[in-house]
Design a protein that fits this description.
Blueprint: H1 21-30, E1 35-39, E2 42-45, H2 46-62, E3 70-74, H3 79-90, E4 94-97, H4 104-114, E5 116-122, H5 126-135, E6 141-145, E7 165-166, H6 167-172, E8 189-194, E9 204-208, H7 209-223, E10 230-232, H8 240-243, H9 245-248, E11 255-257, H10 264-274, E12 278-281, H11 283-290, E13 304-308, H12 315-324, E14 326-334, E15 339-343, H13 355-362, E16 367-368, E17 374-379, E18 384-385, E19 394-399, E20 406-407, H14 411-417, E21 423-431, E22 437-442, E23 447-449, E24 452-454, H15 456-464, E25 469-479, E26 483-492, H16 500-508, E27 519-522, H17 535-542
Parallel strand pairs: 1-11, 3-4, 3-5, 4-8, 5-6, 6-7, 10-11, 10-12, 12-13, 13-14, 26-27
Antiparallel strand pairs: 1-2, 8-9, 9-20, 14-15, 15-16, 17-18, 17-19, 19-21, 21-22, 23-24, 25-26
Length: 543
Amino acid sequence: MGIYDENLDRNAANHQPLTPLTYLSRAAHTFPDTVAIIHGRLRRTYRDFYARSKRLASALERRGIRSGETVAVMLSNTPAMLEAHHGVPMAAAVLLSINTRLDAATIAFQLDHSEAKLVIVDREFSAVMGAALALAKARPVIVDYDDPDFPEDAPVAKGAAIGTIEYEALLAEGDPDHDWPLPADEWDAISLNYTSGTTGNPKGVVYHHRGAALMGYANVVAAGLGQRPVYLWTLPMFHCNGWCFPWTLAVQAGTHVCLRWVRAKAMYDAIADHGVTHLCGAPIVMSLLINAAEADKRPFDQTVTFNTAAAPPPQSVLAGMKRAGFAVTHLYGLTETYGPAVVNEWQPVWDSLPDAEQAALKARQGVRYTALEDLTVMNPETMTRVPADGETIGEVMFRGNIVMRGYLKNPAASAEAFRGGWFHSGDLGVLHEDGYIELKDRAKDIIISGGENISSIEVENALYQHPAVQTAAVVARPHETWGETPVAFVELKPGHDASAEDLMAHCRSHLARFKCPTAIVFADVPKTSTGKIQKYVLRQMAL
């Protein structure tokens, strides 16, 4: 022992568990009258937001919810969803946010696997939740959320109430001055998020308070959140807990602008009316904005930061967003890394480069978040780093405090994911000389044709350079001679025409011939609720 190890122990005065819940309490005490939530006609201050979250925590405890038990919610981007992100963990429970587009069988699996004790369900989803409960073994308490700002001209109707109590009545049971405890350990679970489950049952990804707290600070840096940002909820909060932004906004006393359905007119109205400064989403949301009808667009004075993940944004989309007044930040991550954990940090010297070179640089995934300790590309067999040559393909791997605890009740999958002391992403990429990583494909999406590896992303990027292409997805199709060849599924922009022959010729002018698609299929490209293309569906369609 050295001199710094003697009589300098941790104690309550100098060591407290990290948790994002303290961000809300600070904002409520420092900026009590600042508007925290906008939802239609509703305006809710930080004072009220905090009090209602404490009511929820108190009510859950009075209803018998105990530490470490699961409280599930099936909610849109509404105030109740924001309150659940705080009130549920304030009760020392674990929040499960269920994807609102799931089928009844998958929901039933999640309720059973998570051993959910209570479920809060928006009446928009009561029918599918009712069907799920009929299939599930779990018998949770059901709470109906009847959104008072549910629009009269909604594209869907409210379902019937299926619970034993309504959400506001539940809150009325709670104490607005509830003295909620910090987690006993920052390693305690704060939330549970299920992976997409494209093969077999989905895996339950467990987040801890420490990781969520660190993501709060990291998001402020990566997204450039200045004081009092105004954040538009185009990203579903059920997706990786909204990339942890439900907790993050309170760090800077920001305003949440709720949005039940992502529509171009509603987004432009919110940006113009509320002074939105930031929003997040997949590239499909960018396409909605730049391809909106002129009647749906609204002018705005501020530059709006759009944080995008998933597929690299095509050059045409980036150019369109810039013209429309949006600054795009490219992020990358997975459910297992609390959402984005990698950011394409823009270098000022790149501003002087031609647009095409800028787009190529912006399409790279980038470098680690400030809260992530290490990020690299490795040979998964030898567990050695690939050379930083921009060419050698390996698996992207993560290490740090914003990596999940593991998969719930699945030690074998957890051990495999953490093999060698790194989280294995399953994504293939290269490491550039400047340390930036660039994805080349998912391991399962690489196309091997005649012994040559073809990156589906490279082929998709070539297709996106055609002015008529709105969405492109490339998968492998079995071939007698070559083993596999690429086939492209394409959606054209409204009002644009292009034939398969046109797109074939375009690809041949941008790619080596063996990389070009052997077939072009014009079809609606299936996507998840967060805008990610469902390649497993396309692979079946390509057979």
